[in-house]
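Reproducibility note. Readers wishing to regenerate the assembly model reported in the main text can use the exact inputs given here. Chain order matters: entities are listed in the order in which they were concatenated for prediction.
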Amino acid sequence: MKTLRALLRDGRFSLGSVVLLLLVALAVLSFFSPYDPTEWRVVPRDLPPSRQYLLGTNSLGQDVFWLLTFAVRNSIFLAFLASTISRVIALAVGLVSGYSGGIVDRVLMLVNDGFIVVPLLLILVLLAMLVRERLNLPAMALLFGVMGWAFDARFIRSQILSLREREFTYTAILSGTPSLRLIVNEYLLFVVPLTMATLIGNMIWVTGMEVTLAYLGLTDVTIPTLGTMLHFALNYQAVLLGLWWWIFAPIGAAVALFVALYLLSMSISEYLDPRARIQRVGAR
Amino acid sequence: MRFVKRYLIPRLIQYVLVTFFGITLVFFLPRLMPVGPVEKAVASIQARGAYTDPKAAEETVRVLREMYGLDRGLFFQYLSFWRRLFTGDFGPSLVSFPTPVIQLIGASLPWTFGLLFTTTVLVFVIGNFTGALAGYFRQNRALKILDAAAMVLAPMPYYIVAQLLIILFAYLIPVFPVGGGYTIGASVSLSLAFIADVLKHAFLPALSLVLLGVATTHQIMRLIVQGVNEEDYVRYARIAAVRERTIFGKYVMRNAMLPQITRLALSFSGLFGGALVTEVVFAYPGVGLLAYRAILASDYNLIMGITTLSTVALTTSTLLMDLLNPLFDPRIRLI
Amino acid sequence: MWSVRANKLCAAYVLDIFGTKKVIHAVNEVSLELRENEVYGIAGESGCGKTTLVRLLFGDVQPPLRLMGGRVLYQVDGRELDLYSLAPAERRDLRWSFISYVPQSSMSNLNPVIKVKGTFGDVLKSHAPHQGKRELLERARQHLVELGLPPKVLEVYPHQLSGGMRQRVVIALATLLSPRVVIADEPVTALDVVVQRGVLQLLKEVQERLQNALVIVTHDMGVLANVADRIGIMYAGRIIEEASVWTIFEQPLHPYTRYLINSLPAFGDKGTRESAPGSPPSLVELPSGCAFHPRCRLARDRCREEVPEFEMVGDEHRVACWLVKEG
Ligand SMILES: Nc1ncnc2c1ncn2[C@@H]1O[C@H](COP(=O)(O)OP(=O)(O)O)[C@@H](O)[C@H]1O
Ligand code: SF4
Ligand SMILES: [Mg+2]
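Running the prediction on these inputs yields the following structure tokens for the assembly.
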């Protein structure tokens, strides 16, 4: 609570939270949508924004506003799920690697660096292409989760290493605290907040990747997300036809989501460790 | 000699291991998918061949099966993948059969190289310059505005910036072409007109890359300079009344550039993977677009070729960086 | 003759932590005098404000540190200068030529990417802008030889030097222009005992050669026993006792000083040592009255209410304690 109050005093944090809350509210609205987002031709086509159709309608005959509520919901859900999966992996690898050192550390870091050096976008694009038809949200989250942990595992490991330098580990080892308890008590409590900060950073990455893949037409385009909305708008030449509301709705929502998450992650990681700022910005 | 033993040899071993493991990942990851990449390629060729040239399609499929030892085990396939890799043979492209993959990549590389080399250098110079100033003169108004601009721009997804540029400068104010590498039908030559045409086509893609790159580099450099500015040796030089110009150049910048040089090497590694999204958005005929087309057509050989090469490019430029670093940092040179 | 005088110095760190203002009163009403040809020791537990005090004496005040009151006077060639009313350029000119500083954490005080001679050159250059590079280098070399340090340290990078040598090099750097006052903040804290002796000896030698004022700041009283002439004991931002080194060690009056002396390890010492119970107070909210009263076994009512005056009680002996004043 105290932490939250301190964070809220930071302008970036409060702005980020407000924007994020608005987006979440938008996502919640999707449960009250009068239309099924996968249905086409439920409303007249290509209408500009009006009282009846807040954000206009698109060339597929969908109401852009209600479609957007589903897109925002799915995109946030995907980002959260994928990032949670990759946090679990990153935390496990980082903790074990940093704590055990020696050969275990070397092998794990080799695997880790392997994931860092492969061209992630190309691989993701390739994998997405192979399973395009089955790429529903959980599957996509799994894909992003499995590919997106390596940077942060290294970060967590480095934090553990610097923590190990401190005295209390030695005293704890000397006084015979069993190592699992040690990991939980002294490390986990320390790195979990840091991991939370990386969660937000990773959500940005996931959303970016999803939009990229959808943009390239490599995801299941029947699931409304910010990416697939943009995909359809571009495919149907919304720009050329002057249907600006169709293209600006997903772009606006995506930019809002990015900026909100970015502000939050900057603020939180600065709160946790002023020196971590560089690593956070530089991570990707 | 301590340098060789404690720095050089460990780096080389690391390089070999990471490259090996990265490529292994590239090989196995697609095979963990429910649909194998080669099977997918075979299926798509057969489908296409059925109503174009059944005979040629059969031939391609036969070559493929043989090449990958599809009828043998996964491990055999893995070994033969490595064997071919060492001879630089990624096999023939499946879509442009039988042109070798390496030849297609070779033809696209100059385009990517020209675009990315120029933008990477520009980003490095501009971003580090403005970032360093913003980090050093923290109270300056104009620089604060620059900070704010970078803050908004940096987290923007790339394609959105690219798309906005196209909308702005190709549709609304049509001064630049919507895409492509040069005007279709123009004769490819070294004439001034052709070069001007190429530059004009490369302008928007370059601008999009430079804008976002500068925003990110600016932010990172600003934080680094702020950090170095607080270091004991900088504070001490200032206390000792060393001239401010000397402090900025010799104490702050010399140290702040070290991590940035490392980052530069990493961004050069992108030269081979190409800027996938950039090239797709602007239909720019580089390696990225080649990769995208390969993916759409399930051209497995081509994809593997590009992915493997860019993995090697990344590890190699990291290694090069590790080898160059001692030149800039005496702490590494004189262990 | 005095070189530096501080008069009722007060300073605080004013921090803004996510909108909450926090004021750390690191130095409170400190008055002291540094004289020609003496070694003045400042001792006290970590966090009591020693570094802040010497920064004030040196004139290194920048946010978040803020001067809240008091004056610092320098006596330069017979002229009295008020440090904080000088123009920035004048203040700069006094640095290194009149007063110089060996900061805490001096392991990282040298730029890691240039050779030691580069740093020496830069410092000399800024005070002698018209001298050539070779001349400057020669001056640096000569200075090192005078201090008995090998001149080849100029040709290496800081990380190639041992901790002790690095500290010696920084001392050489600080005394390059024969300043009248040298302040060394925890000069031996990071070093092991054998090296400590050598570094202290070097400091003392330089001081004897220059006949100037040397200030040694330390949290470890033992360091001062053999080098200091006078010692000031700091607690919670105040100097609470000041006397000659002999008096401090043999006839300390303030209960806190006694605790400090008693907690020093001694040879052949088997019994447990008495040390002050509890921990130093928060400088954000100082205890009322004598800041030491929560830890003082002899505290009385008055101690909790009024701050004891810092008063002369004997020859060159000042103490701030009700016990001493009231008997
Ligand atoms: N840069 C700073 N910002 C905020 N607080 C500081 C800073 N430097 C020192 N302090 C605080 O001021 C008090 C005195 O510190 P310092 O003078 O360094 O003590 P000492 O040198 O005796 O250990 C401490 O409580 C410390 O936390
Ligand atoms: S003034 Fe009182 S509390 Fe303070 S040291 Fe003296 S006796 Fe103790
Ligand atoms: Mg100190």
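We highlight two features of this model. Residues 275-284 of chain A have pLDDT under 50 and may be disordered. The first helix of chain A runs from residue 2 to 8.
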